[in-house]
Structure formats: C-alpha cells, structure tokens
Amino acid sequence: MTPSSQRPRxxxxxxxxxxxxxxxxxxxxxxxxxxxxxxxxxxATYAAEGWMCGRVTMxxxxxxxxxxxxxxxxxxxxxxxxxxxxxxxxxxxxxxxDSSGRLAWETNDISGDHVVSILSARVSDGYLQFLxxxxxxxxxxxxxxxxxxxxxxxxRAQFDVRTLMLEGGGRINGAMLRAGLVDEVSLxxxxxxxxxxxxxxxxxxxxxSGAPRHLVLEHVEPLAGNLLWLRYRLVPKSNAVAx
Length: 243
Known about the structure:
Elements: E1 9-17, H1 29-45, E2 50-54, H2 55-62, H3 68-71, E3 93-97, E4 109-110, E5 113-119, H4 125-134, E6 137-140, H5 148-159, E7 163-166, H6 170-178, E8 184-190, E9 215-223, E10 227-234
C-alpha cells in the first residue's frame, strides 16, 4: 500500500507471543530480555522520524495522570484553537494519543524524542497551558475523540514526519487498522504461548465495524533467542478477494 503524500508511512511495529498477546509481564525473563534487545534494533532499521502510542502505553513515560475532576473540565467555547510546537530543534518525536488530556507530563522528552500530545478539541484551556509550560507540543484533531487521519496529516505537515512507527497498545493499533492508516506490520514473533484470556493483542478492535485485513508476507528473518522478524504489507481494501 502506498500512503497518501499528506500523511506519513505508518509501520505497526510490535512483539507478540505466538497467540498474538503483547503483555510481556509474566513471560520468561530471558525471553523478555531478548524481546527488548531485538525490538529497539529492528525499530532503528526503519530510520523513522517518530513513533506513536496510545494513552495507556504512554502513562509510564508521562509519570503522572490527571484526576477525573481535572479531565472533566472541558473546553466549551465555539472558537477553534491553534496547535502548538514548542521552541527548539527536534529531529525525532514521540506522539501520544490522548483524547481527553489525561496525561500529566513531567518532561517533554523520552530518550531524546520530543513529546507531542495528540488531543481532541474538548480538552480545557488550562490543560493546554499546562502542556505549553512543560514544553510539550500538541495537536488538536477531532471534536471529542482523536480524528486519526487528520492527526497524521498534521504530523506530516507540522513535524515533517515521513515514516511513523505505531507501537501500541492493541486498541490504538486496532483503530488505525480499521481506519486504513497502517501500511506495514513489523512483528517480532516470540517463542511464548501466552494463553491468558483477556490479555491485549496486537490489534484490538472494540466493535465489528472493520473487516479483517489481508496481509502479504514480505520478509522473514530468524533472530537470536528463537524469535522471528516478520514483515507484512497491507493489501488495499479494494484489492481484497473474497473466498
């Protein structure tokens, strides 16, 4: 699939057990260590300018969350507000999907990547001021939930991101897949049979509005520790053939 020139090329890069589970807690320690080692190495091969995760995945990086009372203080005036890019020269970015403005960032940096919060227009002026004071950039996309397509267009236009790594959790991956915004899947297949019912998967779609997608295998590479690196290309929906 060739992405629109208005948005970045999106690679969903994940590590999963053979039954598709992505929560490494409880996996054998040596396997988990191999996953962490290979995951970053494979990520680097794409030379992406940015990576994106959902709110839950980003919480440990933010190191704080706002209370329910703070989150419910929403913006109520009709006029639109501007996106914000913090001062400084940045060449790599960490994008956090956070519709309601739940994350209370303590820093604007994750291992050298500048933090950009992707928000809906319902967040309060007070929260936007909080982000500006922390030096966290932000993009407003969508009225009450993040409009993922619009967010990607803004990421390309405002931050010059041409390749974006989508790195979970399963709900944001599933939402991007359903919206037709994933171009490639990069999967580290881990020699673990998880089997725990309810654990998140690589793609979790909350409803049945999106049909399963067809993939084409492009690359297979064995890695140390009995892992496999699999690369798949998404087949455009118009080219899917029914059985």
